Amino acid sequence: MSNTNTSHEPVITSYAKAPTRTISAGGVTFAYRELGPKGGIPVVFFVHLAATLDNWDPRIVDPIAKNRHVITFDNRGVGASTGEVPDSVEAMADDAYTFIKALGFDKVDIFSFSLGGFIAQDLVVKHPELVRKLVLTGTGPRGGKDIEKVVGVTYWDILRATLTRQDPKEFLFFNRNATGKPAARAFVQRLQERTVDRDADIKVRAFQTQLKAIQKFGRSAPADLSKLTQPTLIANGDNDRMVPSVLSEDLHRRIKGSELIIYPDSGHGGIFQFHGKFAPVAVEFLAR
C-alpha cells in the first residue's frame, strides 16, 4: 500500500501535536490520537497501568511515526474514553479489538508496554489474524510469577512519591541511583512536551480496578503462547520491580522466534531510559 496522504493535510510526525479524536463503538466513545503517514498497516500503542494518551514517550512514538501510521488510545473508562474500566484484562483486550475494528483495520502491528502488554497478549491469543507484529515491553505472561505483587509495589511507590512530591513513575519505572534518577526526571519532563489539549488523569477508582485486573491476570492459568506465530520483540530493563525482568525471559522462551533485549542498570522504564538505543531497534523491527 502506498503511504500517500490522500487528504492533502500535512503529515503530523510529532506526538506533541497529534490531535485527539474520538470514535464510538460497542457503547464506548474511545479517545485516540493518530500521527504519521496514513496507508499500510498501522502501529497501535497499548498503554500502561494508570496511563492516558499523555503517557507515551515522544522519543519512542515520533521515530516510529516518521514512516508509519501510529495510533494511541485510551482504554475504556480511562482519560477521555467513556464507560467503566473492566475488571479483567480479557475484557480490556475485547475493548481494544472493538476499537481497532471500528477504525476499519483488519491487520495491525502492536506496540505495548506493561499492562498494555498483558492486553496485547490476550488480544493476539483470541484474534491471531488481526496482529502482524508484536512489541512487548516491560511486561510478562498471564500467570507469570509475582505479577500479582505489582499492586503492593505500586501503592508503596505512590506513597514514597507523594511524601517527596515526585511523580510515582520516577520510583516505579527507574532505579533510584546515579543513572536512574536523572533518566527519570528527563522522562517525566518529556511527557510534558505537549502543552495543549492534554488528556484527563485517570480516576482513582479506575486505577484501582486496573490493579484488580492485573492481580487476576497474575493469578490465572497461563495462556498458550506457543501458538503465536507473529514476529515478536521483547524488551525490558534488568531490574524491573513492577513486572520482574525474569518474566521478559519467560515470554521469550514461550514465544517461538521472539527477540529479547534487556537493558543494563535500568528498571521497568528501561526502554524510556535507553530510548536513543531502543527507538531505532523498534523502528527497524516494525519495518522489516
Description of the structure:
The model is unreliable at 1-5 (pLDDT under 50). The chain has helices at 58-65, 89-102, 115-126, 150-163, 168-172, 180-190, 204-219, 246-254, 270-273, 275-287; strands at residues 20-25, 28-35, 43-46, 70-73, 108-113, 131-137, 232-237, 259-263. It has 288 residues and is an alpha/beta fold. It is globular and about 50 Å long. The protein has a single domain, classed as Alpha/Beta hydrolase fold, catalytic domain (Rossmann fold), CATH 3.40.50. GO terms for molecular function: hydrolase activity. Keywords: Hydrolase. Residues 43-272 form the AB hydrolase-1 domain. InterPro entries: AB_hydrolase, AB_hydrolase_1, AB_hydrolase_fold.
